Amino acid sequence: MDAKLDIVIVGGGISGLSAAYYLEKAARSQGLWLQTTLLEKEAVLGGKIATQRRDGFIFEGGPESFVTRKPEAWQLCHELGLADQLVGTTRPGKNYVLHNGRPAIVPSGPGSFFATPLLSAGGKLRLLKEPFVKPRTEASDESLGSFLRRRLGDEMVDSVVKPAIGSVYLGNVDEMSVQVSFGRFAEMERQHGSVVKGMFGLMKEKRAERKASGGPRPVKTPAFATLQTGLMALIEALAEAIEGEILLDTAVAHLHHDLTTPKPYALSLSNGRTLLADLVVLATPTFVMADLLSGLVETAVTDQLHNIPYNPVTTVNLAFNRSDIADPFDGFGVVVPEAESSQLLAIEGMSAKFPHRAPANQFVLRAFVGGQNQPELASLSETELIGLVRVELEPILGITARPTRTHVQRWLPANPQPPVGYLAMITQIERALARQLPQLYLTGAGLRGQGIPDCIRQSRELVSQIMANLTENNPLQRDF
Ligand SMILES: Cc1cc2nc3c(=O)[nH]c(=O)nc-3n(C[C@H](O)[C@H](O)[C@H](O)COP(=O)(O)OP(=O)(O)OC[C@H]3O[C@@H](n4cnc5c(N)ncnc54)[C@H](O)[C@@H]3O)c2cc1C
């Protein structure tokens, strides 16, 4: 009998690559003999991570940075030897909301809070009441909108939070699960009775930890980080570190399961080949998981995976000569509320956030188009999209100059929209799979969080689970 364990990972985005990387790492440390094969449908790895390096510019078509508060991406970059390539934000970002056609700064302190035109006096007063709002007692999920409306009031949600979250998740706060999108805040309410009290509690805990450790004040990690040559550098470093095979331009067309054969999984590939496996990890969008699992598990599971909504979005990067712009935008972004008659979801100050992404005499902005309310716009032609963004930018930022470079990236579909009750549904799906398809696992943005650090965390946790199952059930442990 072939004593080697064959593991196939489907999907070469950050989730699939980090699953392969951590699997190999864990196998080495636990003396398991395994061979990983990662299959990617496209000609390049990265999935939503899509950097284009051109003429001294770094254009990001998908994610452009990651948060460091969730440490997994930051840590993985260090582990892969990318520490000297990490670039952090050097200042707190100025964030804006479009208000009556002009960017209004989102308050970040008491002074700007009282002065902001974004909220009426009543809206501001309502915010100040947050610590005194009774906490919800049910532990069940609710929509992010319902959570925030209870805690902060409708005005704050409609004028500030809804557009900000909408531009990140491309969906509606009144439909998405608070547990998936902002579980941390729901937890603060449960533990401290209020988000504000929770934040103060967290600061106090951190101060106490620091005091107890007796160490010096740690060097502050920047809030957001990216890589000198773009986020694709993380994908390239992962691909380099993975010892197993990586097959590009190779889609899995069908998955078969037969427990009577020595290798229970057979994957039919787009190139006509069939690959046998002991264990399979699906790291694709959830609708692809649904297709691949169709006929292998109860239809309730595939229906649930199929029905997870994804909205389309297209990102449009525009570079300008700095000398052509009287007053280059200094903010990290402007989000656009539904009430404003704009065809944009958001504008990001790509150069303001990370100046290294363009030559010194250039300035890059990025617009988001599409989303839940205007999905058809995401499919316009490149010329139409660039024209649309230029027309929209003029009244908002006063930019009339012709761009020197453009980069358009379409994501049809883009990000999953986790509805209320989502985590419970995912847990149910995983239980059904464990019963019906042993040694088949799911990971990725469609499950328990979609930011890059969330994807890495999920794959890392999945590997711990796989290793626990393997070492418990499997005779293939080797004594190296
Ligand atoms: C416009 C945009 C901006 C974003 N901005 C940020 C940001 O700034 N920061 C942040 O942290 N996150 C951001 N995100 C979210 C984050 O980028 C994604 O959630 C994450 O990259 C998804 O990774 P994944 O590996 O789970 O899925 P994907 O990246 O979707 O990878 C899945 C892979 O599976 C492959 N595949 C599909 N079907 C098959 C098949 N049958 N056979 C083989 N392979 C298959 C696909 O080609 C793809 O490569 C953004 C997302 C978008 C769309």
In short:
With about 475 residues, the protein is α/β, with parallel strands linked by helices. Helices cover about 40% and strands about 20% of the residues. A hairpin with a 2-residue loop joins strand 3 and strand 4 (about 55-60).
Structure description:
The chain is an alpha/beta fold and 480 residues long. The protein has three domains: 5-47 and 231-309 and 418-473, FAD/NAD(P)-binding domain (3-Layer(bba) Sandwich); 91-120 and 311-414, Polyamine Oxidase, Chain A, domain 2 (Alpha-Beta Complex); 129-213, protoporphyrinogen ix oxidase, domain 3 (Orthogonal Bundle), CATH 1.10.3110. 38% of the residues lie in helices and 20% in strands. The protein contains 15 helices and 20 strands. The protein has helices at residues 14-30, 72-79, 110-115, 121-128, 144-152, 154-169, 178-192, 195-213, 232-241, 286-293, 299-306, 350-353, 382-397, 422-436, 452-473; strands at residues 5-10, 34-39, 51-54, 57-60, 66-67, 86-88, 95-99, 102-105, 224-227, 245-247, 252-257, 265-269, 274-277, 279-282, 313-321, 333-335, 346-348, 362-370, 405-411, 440-442. The strands form five sheets. A seven-stranded mixed sheet has the order 8-7-16-17-18-15-19. It has a five-stranded parallel sheet with strand order 10-2-1-14-20. The protein has a three-stranded antiparallel sheet with strand order 5-9-6. Strand 12 and strand 13 (274-277) form a beta hairpin. Helix 1 (14-30) packs parallel to helix 15, helix 2 crosses helix 15 and helix 5 (144-152) packs antiparallel against helix 6 (154-169). The two termini are 19 Å apart. Bound molecules: flavin-adenine dinucleotide (FAD). Flavin-adenine dinucleotide is lined by residues 10-16, 39-42, 47-49, 62-66, 251-252, 283-285, 288, 313, 315, 411, 414-415, 444-445, 450-452, 455.
